[in-house]
Specification:
Length: about 725
Amino acid sequence: MSCCDLAAAGQLGKAGIMASDCEPALNQAESRNPTLERYLGALREAKNDSEQFAALLLVTKAVKAGDIDAKTRRRIFDAVGFTFPNRLLTTKEAPDGCPDHVLRALGVALLACFCSDPELAVHPQVLNKIPILSTFLTARGDPDDAARRSMIDDTYQCLTAVAGTPRGPRHLIAGGTVSALCQAYLGHGYGFDQALALLVGLLAAAETQCWKEAEPDLLAVLRGLSEDFQKAEDASKFELCQLLPLFLPPTTVPPECHRDLQAGLARILGSKLSSWQRNPALKLAARLAHACGSDWIPAGSSGSKFLALLVNLACVEVRLALEETGTEVKEDVVTACYALMELGIQECTRCEQSLLKEPQKVQLVSVMKEAIGAVIHYLLQVGSEKQKEPFVFASVRILGAWLAEETSSLRKEVCQLLPFLVRYAKTLYEEAEEANDLTQQVANLAIPPTTPGPTWPGDALRLLLPGWCHLTVEDGPREILIKEGAPSLLCKYFLQQWELTSPGHDTSVLPDSVEIGLQTCCHIFLNLVVTAPGLIKRDACFTSLMNTLMTSLPALVQQQGRLLLAANVATLGLLMARLLSTSPALQGTPASRGFFAAAILFLSQSHVARATPGSDQAVLALSPEYEGIWADLQELWFLGMQAFTGCVPLLPWLAPAALRSRWPQELLQLLGSVSPNSVKPEMVAAYQGVLVELARANRLCREAMRLQAGEETASHYRMAALEQCLSEP
């Protein structure tokens, strides 16, 4: 049989593949080709390669292209099986005068024919050919050779058929197909456009696995696409806008791509465009903003103008979509605009190294305020039937980001919306699994298939905590929050989140947002303790909260790297103890004694005596653990000292417990070992407050202080109240 005959036989695969859109019944095919059954029989009875080749050629001539339906393809498979194509794919010897790739081309053509049947596409004999097929995509050869081109087309047909099955993408990734497709695309040889299309499908189906298996190759494709995007002057730049989000890695975008991506977007968004041209650009910018923050935008005048343009366009889009009642909202586009607005909020509130100049910040805050007004207007229209929709979650998220930084503007509108926000947060809290699901759905709105960058919190309450922290300071919003049951909801939420940090849970895998959320809850409770003490006394949820604080602090203060959370818990517990001092739980129970011992540990370890070169006297200095976070810690520490001082006269057992801990003695010893000039007046006042109350509450404390040269130390530091107290019997 000649090489030409082999090539003709290879057209059988084409016939089968091209027939996918038109499959006439088998009896119709047979009526047109009465000899087909006889040739299929000859194919089944073939005893050697030559007879099989001949039979294949006869079947090809008997059935015209387009006439092979699914049943006929299955009959051909039953006659040929996998053994013959396997040999064609792996043979290294071709007939005289026939290029070696022709045999492989026929083997691939047969597989392409078989893969048209979904059941055969996942047959083990097809799946184990994936590594071989992948190598054909990058094999060198004459680019104009018709047989080679035919083989490449058939290879893509096979791989595409496998990819279309439920587990197909996983098999292709494991077989090295992703790297092969990347190389085929970068080589820009025949069929490179098919390589890109198949890559898009695999990334959409299994992004994480693709990046795990072929990160270097995918990054190379991303660099190539970014360069093309930057250079494109025709309509291809809009197509690239839609493709590029799929090729951005799930972690961070390589810096070498930043310039090209930003330049391409600047050229598009700086022009007058229709919505179908502009929207993909906004969605790409949102993906970059979410993955990289503002790192992908260059510093200087061009970068600040570009960022201002992005945020302005986003705000206009949000207002157009949400202010018009009855207008169909393009939720994916608006969600992308929310991400760009969030970037604007971050840059407007950044004090150092912000891309924006002060006049730009003022202008952007103004336009974002209008857009947030539109978001509030939209949320006020949301009925209970829509509360679980991902777009509502996205809208609450951007509102939460705004309220975290700005609560003075739109105060009337925010107060009007607060009842909805409390109900919404409660609904999602009570259905936590659905809330976590919403995070992914929100990401899918604008930037499929996965959430880029830092994980968005999976519950609405965590999004709202910073804003509520600001609002609980103000009388009007605080009263609404209390009336709607927000404090009780916050207590339940705090206790649930606290469980995630308790012994038995691996805190190393918890996102930072959990601990930040706990700290913010503490700040809200601190506001309520100060502004609504009656609520703390009468609401039973705060008794449960106090019990949790007391049992948790002893272990928390011993944990490395969690000092700030310990400071919040200790200070909140001390302030609440003053209000709940008559509670049985605080009458010297083991839990209450453990809590106050831990609180003393937190308060007493903040400062140490530090020697100074060239001086005989040490100075008072922050201890190393406290020094790095003192800016965030000092307000809590001073408040904790004040609260502890207030607890001493209310809890008779506390002064003896403090004496047993040796805190008053060690405090006087510390003050006596350092230069008084190194102790700031506010520190002197805080220390004197504690020492005076301990001395007044307990005779043994006074005696211990006198033995520690308390009167002399009080005189050195001009602590008149302490000096007078210690002079009394």
